[in-house]
Description:
Structural class: mainly alpha
Order of helices and strands: HHHHH
Number of strands: 0
Shape: elongated
Amino acid sequence: MPSIRLAAAAAVLAACAAAALVACGGDDTDAKNDYVDAVNEVTATLNTGLTEIASSGTAVGSPKDAAKVFGDFSKTLDGAAADLEGIDPPSDVTSQHEELVGILDQLGSESQNAADEISQGGAAAVTGVATQFIGEANQLGSEADATIDEINSKLQE
């Protein structure tokens, strides 16, 4: 049962990373496209990392293994947030860019919290924690999608 839940959690996270920015036209096209390329590179790397974790997560057999998977999710998300934070966004999408970084930070924190709860609660905690995390990740994924849509819209102006 835990492996199915962890696979679902990984799928949710991979879906969060799947959204991409689109190339731009108009004024400052090169700067905007450089930004789009940089963000898409981070999300592609994030998606690859989450897919790798998902593959290992399907073989989880113990609470310790489950906690490690969530801990790995957290590290991957934290790395992506730090990479995004290092990208200088165009001025018209600065606040949305910061929102996106914040969403990844929050996902990373939620994943670490899940790892900690599983470590403390043992086998009985895995299903409940994974279910709660999936719900939170879905919500944050929707927020990330909306933020990316907003960035795309502003960059296309």
